[in-house]
Automatic annotation (TrEMBL):
PROSITE patterns: FTSK. ATP binds at residues 385-392. This is FtsK domain-containing protein. The chain crosses the membrane at residues 177-198.
Amino acid sequence: MQEQDEAIRTGVVWEASASEAPPGRTDDTHRTGQEQKPSPEDGAGEAVHGAVVHAPRVGDAASKRALLDDINARLRASLSTWHTYAILAWSRRWQTAEAYIQDPDLYREIVEEAREEVRRERATVAKKLDKARLRRDEAQVKLLTEQLADLERRAPSAMKMDALTLKARSGRLARQAALPVGIVAGPLAALLAGGMWWPLLAWPAAWAWLAVQGHGMAVAEGTATAEEASGEAAPVLPTPRPAPGGASAASSVTPVGASEAENAILAHLADWDRRAAGRGLEGVTPTPMPSLDSLGIRVVLKTSGRTTPDTLGKRMSAVRAALAVPRDVRTDLSPGDVGDEAVLRIRTRTPDRDMTWRPERAGIGVDTDTGEPVVLPKGRMLIAGTSGAGKSVLLRVVMAEALCAQEPTAVVYIDPKGEESGLWRGKVRCANTPGEIIALLREVGQESDERSQIMQKRRVSQWVPTEERPRIVVVVDEGAEIVSMDDPAEDIDVIKRLQPLATMGRSRGIDLKWATQKPLLGSGIPSQLNGVMQDRVVLRTAGRTENNQVLGADWSSHELELGGSALTNTGGRGPGQAPIQVWDLSDDAAILALPDAESWSHRPGHDETPAAPKASGIPPVLGAAVALLEMDPDANGIPGNDIARACDMDLLDAQEALLAAGVQARRYSQDGAQVRGYRRDALEEAARRYEK
Ligand SMILES: Nc1ncnc2c1ncn2[C@@H]1O[C@H](COP(=O)(O)OP(=O)(O)OP(=O)(O)O)[C@@H](O)[C@H]1O
């Protein structure tokens, strides 16, 4: 009977018979490829009378047609799916092109370029003017002064800027449209003009290329795509993939307001079992509900087996890889509420903070991770950042912070562009032209030399700023302009005058801040300064080359955002740090509101530094401690750190030297508080011993 079944698989149908069949015939019933199931009305479960008959011949043709229809439907569905991918890729490509063409910053860039050109012309004329003055060529001086005045008045006309912006946008549009138009029109032209058909293959090729791109994008974004087998192309929706394991994976949620990047990470979390497999993350399971808050994604990871929250901490790179966390997004793992849980934070967001600079704000900005203020050490500093990175704003913060410092501080501002200086006049000393810059540096150099002599005389190794001789912060904006201005043959020896300030200024209370848009050796940072300017604050750089030059290959300043995001190698901060968001001092009114101050100038021969004990043979560290005491008559003592700093010594070395001089650190009271350090009476008594 079985053999008979196999032999009659096709070409036969079951046909119910109206007539009564003899009882034995029910054994002969068959269900074939085209079987007709008895409906309940037929009396399911009961033997139904009927007969196996040959299917009508027309059935052969119909089945072939059905097969063909089925193949066609699948092909259509597949084409439709890939077409959806092609459209996705095309729409993304066009969105990018549109954003590039409509870039709202284009106008600003063009205006900047025009201003830059005027600035360059102005600098050239100013340089010529200085040379003419040095030659005492009155005719040239007159001519060049007029030219300079003319350039000072010149401002780019709005109409010209509009026309240039339109031209630039048209150029961008033409460049973006060239390839698609070429692919569409080129083969047609070849067909019509030369009768060549094969260039038409460019169309399906371009379509296939787009489809593959679109598929790649959909996969990368974790989006659901068309169901190829369904016969109907589903729309491309930003829906995370379902978790195959279901229970063990985090819920597949699309939170309102989540960014594309966050959705991608959430989709990967939902697909944890598959994505974590083979990465050494066995025994780690995300709990079902990740959440989104002002810092980004938070998810609790449950550990089991040999994995603990501690060992998981060592596998963070595997966790990041499993979730495809972008490189610039930080991740932190902290202990959970119970011993086998860890909380994973994926910091995709920066909380809203009021970043406006105010005099009471500390440092240059905040660490975007911890929210703590970032205070830069005093001393020389290299500041770099490409156009628009926020260099001018950062320099404003540095200067405003210096002006508001407790310690007596003066700012001198070398600004060859001259635009910012207007805001600072009456508060800081500004120098714009080569003549002004040389004059200013000559004065600072004299001051530096005098301080050195005073320090030697006083036997101290560190300058302590006073009202008469304050800390001097020398800010050099647009270092590249200074480099190009430098012309020692014509007595414009700016770099030669800056170099000793960079090397020796720190101990003399003179801090050089060199800012440049092009942090490349030679053009933006003179090689004489590069070696000594090791403390650096770097905003976004133009590219990797600049990043490597200014920070090193393991840093990524070129990936920072424009507009005030910075990194620094000071204060123990390394390449993996969260960026610093610089305080926002872009408001001119805030600078104008700063208190006016007498601008610094060198006053020769002024020596108000209190004399150190004249005893011969007094140890320098004891001499420095007594000098510090004399400068602060209300002090009952001096903390060891202050003495060590004044001598440029390690605290331990200073303590040892003081012990050798017969003074021990003790507690003393100062302004109602107990302070540990060196008491006045002990220091003075030790100094007297050396006088005898
Ligand atoms: N710390 C900041 N906070 C908020 N916005 C900022 C900050 N720094 C810069 N920006 C924004 O970025 C713009 C460009 O900044 P800035 O003029 O400082 O750049 P720059 O590096 O000096 O560029 P350029 O060298 O071309 O003048 C500012 O107008 C401001 O809108």
